[in-house]
């Protein structure tokens, strides 16, 4: 084996160790490792310590010019390299902080009408249908819904607690009354599945951070189990333990795509579209933007305000002169 190649696995092992020390998600870990691997291969398998600002800028430029990647993709690649040099190699390279991040274009989110949401959900059934209804009815992000644990569903208060959401923040959102009974049935199915796992010598769920050490045995308690557990046990890639993970997000994505086609909706629809629709429909119903900001878990209200643009209200909420009747034109003139 080439000496340069023999160093790569050890470097990647250190990247994984540092990322897990900082509690990065498995998805982010895989993405960062992928970009670091591409960076090394693009530079003739040379060790990153022997590379510098010129190579990083060239790599990012090739991504943008030849690869035509989105700004968010280019920024993710830069973040991966920043983490490699700053947190893994512990190399102080001032130029890394000065590399200009690609500016993300301001785009309006895709939003379904209430009739379109009803048509989409009518074409979904089973567990995927329940998760889709939960995402639309609560405004949860996809992984927040899939990672929901039994203890965080409060039927008495009709609320759901989101733990360690985006930015590491907890928050509460509403529990739709129409989903109370289906969720209780789903939790009972999860209880039976967990009981079978315990009898088979398993039943321990993954716990975030150091909770498994802090609360010994908590991982085997039903309260910590996922509301939507996977149908099969699997090996955890982080520590090699056999556990029951949550429902696969790819399964839900495929179900949403099939439902969109059956419903005849000619818009791109994803799980996140349901969250966008939740916020927009609450605004249409007259709820204030601060309340919606808290339900969505946005750190800055400016993020939530994008839905006012979707509604086309405020200063731009005007009627076309083609649609103005004499009565509406007079009313518009008299408006303060």
UniProtKB/TrEMBL annotation:
Residues 10-89 form the Core-binding (CB) domain. Keywords: DNA integration, DNA recombination, DNA-binding. It comes from the Bacteria. Signal peptide: none annotated. PROSITE patterns: CB, TYR_RECOMBINASE. InterPro entries: CB, DNA_brk_join_enz, Integrase-like_cat_sf, Integrase_catalytic, Integrase_integron-type, Integrase_recombinase_N, Integrase_SAM-like_N, Tyrosine_recombinase_XerCD. Residues 107-320 form the Tyr recombinase domain. Belongs to the 'phage' integrase family. NCBIfam families: integrase_gron (TIGR02249). This is Integron integrase. It comes from Luteimonas composti.
């Amino acid at each position: 084996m080439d000496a340069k190649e023999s160093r790569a696995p050890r470097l990647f092992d250190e990247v994984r160790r540092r990322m897990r020390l900082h509690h990065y998600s498995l998805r982010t870990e895989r993405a960062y490792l992928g970009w670091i691997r591409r960076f090394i291969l693009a530079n003739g398998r040379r060790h990153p310590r022997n590379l510098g600002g010129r190579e990083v800028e060239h790599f990012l430029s090739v991504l943008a010019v030849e690869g035509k990647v989105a700004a968010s993709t280019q920024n993710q690649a830069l973040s991966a390299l920043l983490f490699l040099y700053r947190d893994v190699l512990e190399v102080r390279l001032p130029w890394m902080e000065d590399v200009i991040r690609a500016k993300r274009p301001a785009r309006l989110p895709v939003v379904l009408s209430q009739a379109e949401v009803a048509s989409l959900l009518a074409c979904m059934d089973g567990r995927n249908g329940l998760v889709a209804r939960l995402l639309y009815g609560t405004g949860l992000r996809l992984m927040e819904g899939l990672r929901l644990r039994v203890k965080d569903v409060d039927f008495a208060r009709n609320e759901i607690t989101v733990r360690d959401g985006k930015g590491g923040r907890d928050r509460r959102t509403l529990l739709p009354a129409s989903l109370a009974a289906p969720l209780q049935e789903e939790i009972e199915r999860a209880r039976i599945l967990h009981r079978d796992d315990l009898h088979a010598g398993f039943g321990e769920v993954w716990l975030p951070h150091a909770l498994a050490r802090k609360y010994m045995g908590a991982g085997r308690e039903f309260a910590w189990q996922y509301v939507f557990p996977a149908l099969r046990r699997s090996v955890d890639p982080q520590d090699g333990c056999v556990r029951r993970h949550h429902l696969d997000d790819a399964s839900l994505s495929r179900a949403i795509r099939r439902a969109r086609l059956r419903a005849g909706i000619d818009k791109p629809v994803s799980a996140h579209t349901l969250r966008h629709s939740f916020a927009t429909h609450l605004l249409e119903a007259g709820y204030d933007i601060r309340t919606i900001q808290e339900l969505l878990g946005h750190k800055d209200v400016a993020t939530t305000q994008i839905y006012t643009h979707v509604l086309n209200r405020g200063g731009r909420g005007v009627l076309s002169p083609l649609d103005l009747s004499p009565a509406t034109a007079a009313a518009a003139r008299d408006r303060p």
